[in-house]
Amino acid sequence: MEKAVNIKNEALKNGLIWGIVNIVLFLVTWYVAPSLMSSYWYAGISLLIGLAFAIFFCIDMRKKVGGYWTFGEALWPIFVTFVMAMGLVFVFNILFGKYIDTSYPEQMKEMVMAKSEATMKSFGLSDEETAKAMAKTSENLEQQFSPSFSQAVMAFGISAIMYFIGAVIFALIFKRNNPNPFANQTTDQFGVN
Question: How far apart are CA 75 and CA 166, in angstroms?
Fold first, then answer.
């Protein structure tokens, strides 16, 4: 007889692994090639790694619960995995900028501002439009890299909602209904002699 798997613990463990991998990727990039942090390549690679982890963990958890799970059974473990990974990285980034490398927020703001200005100029925006957009970008970056407590809570909540939507999509994709729901039941459960 197979040992029962605690899917809640699996989801937490998977989220922890995913979060740690994201933190390691962040640290390696920050200390080896910080200019990549504001590039589309870094964002693209991070997205691909995230999708690979999401797919792997969804398939792995489904396999551990017997190969079948309904949408409802899949949703919460997937969401817990996603939000655990996101939460770990979210908290780490705030702590990293405040206590570990205090130059991180300012350097990131400068890199993003330079990239944003170049992008706006390539779109042919006037100097006035560019100045307005840059002021708004600067304000957003200040909230992102040096948030107040209420801003951090709001940002975490918005991120959690976005990850919940992602979890709904993944639960729809990775649900698998058992074609024979009575396979594990014995005849005495049905009153057959």
Answer: 10
The pTM of this model reads 0.82
pLDDT of residue 191: 54
The encoded tokens of residue 74 equal 């899949």
Q: What is the token pair recorded at 7?
A: 């899917």
H and E: helices and strands count for the chain: 6, 0
- Give the tens place of pLDDT for each residue, 92-144: 999 999 999 999 999 988 888 888 888 888 888 788 888 888 888 888 888 88
On whether residue 188 sits in a domain, the answer given is no
Give me the domain span that covers residue 115: 7-177
- Other CB atoms within 10 A of residue 41 CB: 8
Closest CA relative to residue 161, chosen from 79, 72, 93: 79
Domain tally for the chain?
1
Q: How far apart are CA 28 and CA 33, in angstroms?
A: 8
Is position 187 within any domain?
no
